Amino acid sequence: MNTCGTMTRRQFVLQSVVLGGGLAIGMRVLPESAAANVGDPAAGDIEMSAWLAIAPTGTVILQTPKGEAGNGTNSSMVLYLSEELGCDPTKVKLEPAQVRRDFRENKVYSRPGGHETWFAGRSNELREVVQQVGASARERLKAAAAAQWNVPAADLVSKDNAILDPASGRRLGYGELAAAAAAITLSKEPAIKPPSAWTLMGKRSVKQLNAASKVDGSGIYGIDFHMPGMLYAAVRHAPVQGARLRSFDAAAVNSMPGVVTVIALGPEHDTSTPVTFQSRLRAAVVVVADHYWNARKALDALPVEWDEGDLATASSTGYRDQYLARLDTPGKVAKSVGDVPAAMKTARTVVEATYESPYLEHAPMEPLNATAHVTADRVDLWLSTQQQENARMVAAEESGLSEDRIFVHPMMVGGQFGRRNHNDEVRQAVAVAKAVGRPVKLIWAREEMMRQGRYRPNAITKFQAGLGPDGLPTAWFVRQAGHSFQLQQDPNFTGFDVIAMRPLSTENEYSIDNILVEFHPMVTNVMAHSFRGSGAGFQLESFVDEVAHAGGTDPVELRRWLLRNAKDPGWLKVLNEVAEKADWGKPLPKGRAQGIAIILDHGNINAQIAEVSVTPQGDLTVHSIDVAFDCGHVINPDGVRAQMEGGILFGLSNALHEEITIEKGRVVQGNFDDYPLLRINEACEVRVHFGGNSGGDKCAPCGEAPVPPVTPAVCNAIFRATGKRVRSFPLSRHDLRWS
Questions:
Q1: Integer Cα distance of 567 and 53 in angstroms
Q2: Distances in Å between the alpha carbon of 55 and those of 8, 66, 83, 283?
Q3: How far apart are alpha carbons 46 and 691 in whole angstroms?
Q4: Cα 505 versus chain centre, distance
Q5: Is 407 in contact with 399 (CB distance < 8 Å)?
Q6: DSSP string for 156-194
């Protein structure tokens, strides 16, 4: 177990400073005893770049500011370093970099992207930084060996954690050279390898570094952390998001086993306005006890009354009516090309359809939790988070201490998908720990996770397409009413959500002479924000298939035509790759068919072909999904394959089962009995094809891109199998019977 006060501070290695566009890197040697321990927070904050250490035994230690949540981020970081340093990837150890140093040293690490681990981990943004760290260390080690052997450094090579002299066969390990190398200053930073010179990246896979600890249970997640004297807190929020706490009867539970105290947490606003994005204290009651189960039992027995106001009348049906009403009025123009009204008047055929997408909960396996220890002069946090920097700022605000007195200890993450961006649990844990004067681990129950989420934004989207005599679109009109987390965050927001609108107005290269895209930003009484693979891909790619059917065009051929003017050749390359690999158009028995979708997400073009069957009784089976993609360069092939497989199954779960609904202001779903996830018997075969990658300068993330095409590909296949067009999900709500 990790306990407070037993961890020693690691004195590091590497200082990276951006000066005049160049990266100045310094090394120092670690004592072997320090190399064996995970470091206490160093004097740094928002560590943007990797830190390198070499112990006397030759152990290479890379400090990473990016958290690992099963997305392979840290495995990629190891490859970045090993490619330049000439070390064996299996002999590199990773440790979490600490956010505090940046705050104290004028944001020395924050420029490439800080400590956030969203957008598939964002390790790609640090690739060149980590490569530069490895290249600089390599040249210092070579210089140290050259001085010892009295030979030109240019004649030496780095390989397998050692410097070799090919002429004499001599060898010096990195550990033997580290002390001398630390004293060397290079006159010029070496250039990093271009992709054409890579020997590891894209050529060799590195397994997840914490895979073994997940299997044997030795890995410490936030919810596993324990320290002596720690108390536990169970929290219950207002059942209607945005309501106020009216009263509670602490005396009714104070005598229950283990109960220490009952604490009220204050609301962030009154009940007349929707909730806001910021991580403020929401109306809640917290029971603190000697064990979580005692806290939870007391919380369940606690009499509580809430002031729910007008928000208690809210419902999914009512919000749907509001959205539909807005679709009858012009919205904010997000994209305009040509003259859509005129083109519609001359079209031979006009195709119309309205699509709906629901709120979705992230549903990570590890619920939100945080352990806080607040003293007079510092706050220590142990948690699983995507946003260490934000956690530090939230803790500072709630504790009243300076940000340089906040120490964040990142733990393993049991799933995130965007939910761990906000640190609601950090603010609560700090408030409770400060109130009781002891370390406190605060845990959200699954029901709190479901009903107090930051959901995937919902939307209703209206389409019209005008077709010419050849069946091809000449006019394209889209109007969407969707939950806007930007309006939710800023009531004065007057634009449109880029994330909510993609790929309707951005991130696609479909070429049509006349296009008009409009957006109505909406808010409700629940919060929405980032979610893995969010956007309107389901709506767009499903309607493209409707247009293909109406015009008598093959769905793949229509997309080829739409992409005929694409500036990025990756679109057609990926489309052709997946069509070939999946044998698009192959003969299939009645009730079995293929469907296709292609979407750009975070720079990664992703095309999928789903093969499904539907019995006449309406039983759906998704047999397989073929995926081709263009992320530019694949760094860690096995890691990318895992991201594609995991993302597709995540998207399939969204498509088949998931939906958050509201009645009487309350989120209806509370646990996996009424918010089911994909079961193992529903998982389909996923075939990953790498032939669509274009190389070049692109190294796009792969975590989110495979999610958006799943639902439209499956729904398009259902139509081809049954003749039934599905315009909303989850599919479990639809009658798919056919005859």
A1: 44
A2: 16, 22, 19, 50
A3: 37
A4: 22
A5: no
A6: -EEETTEEEETTTTEEEEHHHHHHHHHT---SSPPPPPP
Pick the CATH number of 1-206 from 3.40.50.720, 1.10.443.10, 1.20.120.450, 3.30.365.10: 3.30.365.10
Residues 701 and 682 sit within 8 Å (Cβ to Cβ): no
Residues 308 and 345: beta-carbon distance below 8 Å: no
Backbone angles phi, psi at 525, to 5 degrees: -85, 5
pLDDT at residue 57, as a whole number: 79
Rounded Cα–Cα distance for residues 259 and 269 (Å): 30
Q: Say whether domain 537-733 belongs to CATH 3.30.365.10.
A: yes
Inter-axis angle of helices 710-722 and 637-656, nearest 10? 60
Question: What is the residue whose two structure tokens read 């001398």?
Answer: 180
Cα–Cα dist 176/97, whole Å: 25
In this prediction the pTM is 0.90
**Amino acid (1-letter code) at residue 609:** I
Supply the pLDDT for residue 194: 93
Structure tokens at 591: 């009730």
Whether the CB-CB separation of 267 and 282 falls below 8 Å is answered with yes
- Which range (110-124, 342-356, 434-448, 479-493) has the least confidence? 110-124
The CATH number of domain 316-359+455-528, selected from 3.30.1020.10, 3.40.640.10, 3.30.365.10, 3.40.50.720: 3.30.365.10
Kindly state the helix (H) or strand (E) to which residue 39 belongs, with its residue range.
none
Q: What is the pLDDT of residues 293-352, one digit of tens each?
A: 999 999 999 999 999 988 899 999 999 999 999 999 999 999 999 999 999 999 999 999
The average pLDDT across 616-645 equals 96
- The DSSP element (H or E) to which 446 belongs, if any, is helix 446-451
CATH code reported for the domain at 220-310+368-443:
3.30.365.10
For residues 658 and 361, the answer to whether their CB atoms sit within 8 Å is: yes
pLDDT in tens, 296-308: 999 999 999 999 9
Please, which residues have CB within 8 angstroms of residue 235's CB and are 6 or more apart in sequence? 265, 284, 285, 286, 299, 428, 442, 443, 444, 445, 448
Q: Read off the tokens for 313.
A: 């009348």
* Amino acid of residue 244: R
Task: Please state, in angstroms and rounded to a whole number, the distance separating the CA atoms of residues 575 and 565.
Answer: 14
Q: Comparing C-alpha atoms, which of 570, 705, 573 is closest to residue 640?
A: 705
> Two tokens at 584?
């698009």
**1-206 and 316-359+455-528, same CATH topology:** yes
d(CA 368, CA 622): 32
Query: Phi/psi at 131 (nearest 5 deg)?
Result: -60, -40
Rounded Cα gap, residues 605 and 627, in angstroms: 10
DSSP for 283-315, please give it.
SEEEEEESSHHHHHHHHHH--EEEE-GGGGG--
